[in-house]
């Protein structure tokens, strides 16, 4: 067999994958036809047409690439034909033909597993018992005393005043409205309310027309002592006074930018917010140098 193997190797590589219709192959494969699965799983060594029909006993392994593959095939060839059901089973004995006998076997076999779940239900109770035993240990206060008077059902001494939820949850959560520092806006001051206000024709800028705003003017409008709060963002000056109660971060935070350039503070907190969209109707004017200050009318004349 090895001699022939070496002889046929050069001709093997790719042609061996396809020639299933070779006449020599069919005759040689007859012994294995009982199990098509085995055939498909084998490395298809039977590709070369050189095998002679008479070589069926030794011929199959001779066309494999390696010796270990041929030995595997030898094993497969030596295996008894797959018998399902078993050769001595009642199904095979009673079945008139192999085709019919193939169907019933799974059922008798599949009837066995249902018995297992019944027996496999036994372990869970033991697991449950262990779980139940473990629970009381982390919370000793829940343990019912084995002796002595009946336990008092009143408030637990170390928990302070009784709460509406029975003291099971901490009550300090009300301190922080949310994790990101947003505040609870008063009714009528939601983002949607602000959007509606911006769409209205109200003058939110507080000035009759756009201004040239000098740094000193900006500093003066800091929101204190009844003065409006202005803030500049990249050269544009907005009157943030009407937006103060609408600001999701709170009035106090927004006031930090009053009377100055608020861009840095703004970008530190929420760079994703478009301030021009939010405050477009609050536009007061543009920043100019001190010496460039002009009357309000002159700015509009330029446009
Ligand atoms: C005038 C310009 C500003 C506008 C239009 C504005 C607008 C907004 C908006 C729309 C939100 C909600 C953001 C969200 O839900 O994702 C917000 C949240 C917030 N803003 Fe402002 N804001 C301005 C200026 C500022 C300034 C100057 C500060 C701080 C100095 C500030 C601090 C905050 C904080 C702490 C929050 C809550 C936390 C957060 O949403 O990330 N905002 N602001």
Task: Indicate the topology.
Elements: H1 2-8, H2 23-29, H3 36-41, H4 56-59, H5 67-78, H6 90-94, H7 98-102, H8 106-120, H9 123-134, H10 191-199, E1 211-213, H11 215-220, E2 230-233, E3 236-239, H12 251-255, E4 260-261, H13 263-269, H14 275-279, E5 283-287, H15 296-302
Parallel strand pairs: 1-5, 2-4
Antiparallel strand pairs: 2-3, 3-5
The chain binds protoporphyrin IX containing FE.
Protoporphyrin IX containing FE is lined by residues 180-182, 231, 240, 247-249, 253-254, 256-257, 262, 265-266, 269-270, 273, 275, 278-279.
Task: Give structural notes.
This protein has about 300 residues and is mostly helical. Among the domains are: about 1-80, no CATH class; about 190-300, Flavocytochrome B2, Chain A, domain 1 (Roll), CATH 3.10.120.10. Helix content is about 35%, strand content about 5%. The chain has helices at about 1-10, 25-30, 35-40, 55-60, 65-80, 90-95, 100, 105-120, 125-135, 190-200, 215-220, 250-255, 265-270, 275-280, 295-300, and strands at about 210-215, 230-235, 235-240, 260, 285. Strands 1-5-3-2-4 form a five-stranded mixed sheet. Strand 2 (about 230-235) and strand 3 form a beta hairpin. The N and C termini lie far apart (about 100 Å). The model is unreliable at about 1-45, about 70-75, about 95-100, about 115-120, about 135-140 and about 155-175 (pLDDT under 50). The protein binds protoporphyrin IX containing FE (HEM). The site of protoporphyrin IX containing FE has 21 residues, from helix 12, helix 13 and helix 14. Protoporphyrin IX containing FE binds next to helix 12, helix 13 and helix 14.
């Amino acid at each position: 067999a090895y001699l022939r193997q070496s002889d046929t190797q050069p001709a093997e590589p790719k042609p061996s994958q396809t020639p299933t219709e070779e006449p020599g192959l069919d005759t040689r494969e007859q012994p294995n036809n009982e199990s098509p699965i085995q055939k498909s799983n084998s490395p298809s060594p039977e590709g070369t047409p050189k095998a002679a029909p008479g070589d069926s006993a030794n011929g199959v392994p001779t066309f494999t690439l390696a010796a270990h593959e041929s030995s595997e095939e030898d094993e497969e060839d030596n295996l008894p034909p797959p018998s399902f059901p078993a050769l001595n089973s009642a199904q095979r004995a009673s079945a008139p033909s192999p085709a019919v006998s193939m169907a019933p076997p799974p059922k008798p076999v599949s009837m066995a597993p249902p018995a297992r779940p019944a027996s496999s239900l036994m372990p869970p109770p033991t697991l449950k018992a262990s779980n139940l035993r473990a629970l009381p240990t982390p919370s000793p206060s829940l343990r019912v005393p084995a002796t002595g008077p009946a336990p008092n059902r009143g408030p637990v001494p170390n928990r302070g005043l009784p709460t509406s939820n029975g003291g099971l949850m901490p009550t300090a959560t009300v301190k922080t409205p949310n994790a990101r520092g947003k505040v609870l806006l008063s009714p009528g001051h939601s983002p949607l309310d602000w959007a509606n206000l911006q769409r209205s024709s109200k003058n939110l800028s507080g000035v009759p027309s756009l201004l040239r705003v000098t740094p000193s003017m900006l500093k003066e409008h800091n929101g204190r002592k009844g003065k409006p709060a202005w803030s500049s963002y990249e050269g544009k000056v907005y009157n943030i006074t009407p937006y103060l109660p609408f600001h999701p971060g709170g009035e106090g935070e927004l006031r930090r930018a009053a009377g100055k350039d608020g861009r840095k503070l703004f970008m530190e907190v929420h760079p994703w917010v478009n301030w021009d969209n939010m405050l477009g109707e609050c536009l007061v004017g543009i920043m100019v140098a001190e010496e460039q200050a002009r009357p309000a009318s002159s700015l509009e004349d330029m446009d």
